[in-house]
């Protein structure tokens, strides 16, 4: 892109549906496969030639590393990892897992020129060395299925996994797996470490990792150790499955969200010892008043602005009588409201992280911070497009939202309902702040004061407006199963219903 030109979305109105994307490449499954795979997740190689300046605070930005780093970008800069439920795409390396659910890219400080692909399946984490095409380590620690995985923004050896066991685990690829229980607290009356396990946010009774084959013909120590557990069901932890997480752009902070309708922001202090497992159950922020249903994803738009999206919410039209409260809820008394996308600001950032050189290792808020905090302000609220059904069947539909930073321009948002014919692209520039709520007014003519008070006490049904989006469709009329934005929004990679992987590029206007 020329310096004087702008990206395609810079001055494009939301009503302009003529997107400049065209199909550039298409990858199809092997013709010998009897069944068509369904692509579930897509991750693009995230680093550029200039990324070495920012990673690990520039510690590896030396003249002797620059040339090797450039060569790695040439080799893997356009790499795309796509996980499907069955089948083997062309020229693909098969890992021993049936359904690949979550993936992320990572790096080891000791081998920064060998990119790693961290893959999760059920409760197991597979660390795949892309350069040598071998699984380097398998890690275990969660007591339930892993729901998401994310990598630290500036320290790519750190990644976080969320799980249905109501906890999140932070791993460090620069450390070897723990082979024995070292610092589990003892039960009262005993002096030995307890064997409680993952359900209590502790270490497993067995080895944490399983070392695999030789890497590059040499025997190498396994990579990955759990250094922090964000416990659930404690003072301020999640009370249900944790569904997503996002690291802060530059602070030691991570945001999580889950099935309990809450969004939490945690501080991640550095461990005092490499053998210590830090357990945290009191976040800096926790609130269930942002969404009315399960929160599916969370992402940072800036230092204190986040975007979250939730699934559909079920509401009762009227309260049940005393005689009916023990009977099955009639479906006619329920209605479904669409899930929402909320953009909101965390108001306590300056309180915990003031603009000074002094930093604290341990940060603690009060009970109103980690139980039900009001330290947030909604900026914008939107509902899903009309293509999502407004009935009980929509409860099993989980829309996906991805945020793409576009250099010095405003971010882009991609919203996709799996197996739908189109994805919605939204520019933050077109997002409008929340309009003031209407005044309750006065009693209607002929309405008694008691009826007026009862009407005011009912739930206000203010449905957020639909997204001011552009619709993106795949060629050949295929439905989308997964979609991501890449390269500052100029490239779109999408998985089609036929098991194909499409690469769309924006033409210069």
Automatic annotation (TrEMBL):
Record's keyword annotation contains Iron: no
Keyword Magnesium annotated: no
Transmembrane segments: none
Spans of repeat WD: 235-268
SMART domains documented for this protein: WD40
Pfam families: WD40
Swiss-Prot/TrEMBL keywords: Repeat, Transcription, Transcription regulation, WD repeat
Domain of life: Eukaryota
The family this protein is said to belong to: Belongs to the WD repeat ESC family.
Name of the protein this chain belongs to: Uncharacterized protein
